[in-house]
Amino acid sequence: MDEAMDKVRELEGEIVEPKSIISNIGHIVGCKDNEGNSFGLVGVTEK
């Protein structure tokens, strides 16, 4: 997840919602690309 967040910043995007825990699933992060399009990153925790 941290590598993907770094890549968003490297490509001039921004993190608009910090990494949050989703119980029993993993993490989610809200982002915007350099054109203002919103998207999310989801990291699933392996069990």
UniProtKB/TrEMBL annotation:
What the entry lists under Gene3D superfamilies is as follows:
2,3-Dihydroxybiphenyl 1,2-Dioxygenase, domain 1
Task: Quote the InterPro entries the UniProt record gives.
Answer: Glyas_Bleomycin-R_OHBP_Dase
Q: What is this protein called?
A: Glyoxalase-like domain-containing protein
Source species: Maribacter arcticus
